[in-house]
Inverse folding.
């Protein structure tokens, strides 16, 4: 891989790894992403996997006999799926609707809770 492609990949890989480690250890995330993510540790693991996959893509070339590019792309797709799961609210509830237990509730209380 040429240096003008490898250097940005290496920088993005390091930044993704730092963000992933911060999310795993402390739960801290960038403010732009913080509002959408409900599971910061899962987001951190996905970011770390994305960093490893970007680093694998650097070593892909026709001269190697190991499919680094294929592993990198497959891992990137898995990391994107993990990131989308990390953005879903826990329990499958909709955003803005409180996750409440509905057993034993009367129908009018369900309407007020917005869950009917």
């Amino acid at each position: 891989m040429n240096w003008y492609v490898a250097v940005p990949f290496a920088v993005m890989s390091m930044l993704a790894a730092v963000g992933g480690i911060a999310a795993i250890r402390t739960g801290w995330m960038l403010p732009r992403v913080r509002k959408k993510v409900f599971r910061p540790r899962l987001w951190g693991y996905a970011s770390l996997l994305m960093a490893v996959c970007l680093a694998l893509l650097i070593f892909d070339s026709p001269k190697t006999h190991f499919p680094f590019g294929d592993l990198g792309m497959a891992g990137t797709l898995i990391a994107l799926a993990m990131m989308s799961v990390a953005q879903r609210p826990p329990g499958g509830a909709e955003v803005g609707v409180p996750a409440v237990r509905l057993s034993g509730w009367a129908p009018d209380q369900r309407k007020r809770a917005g869950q009917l």
Summary: The chain is about 60% helix and 0% strand. The first helix runs from residue 3 to 25.
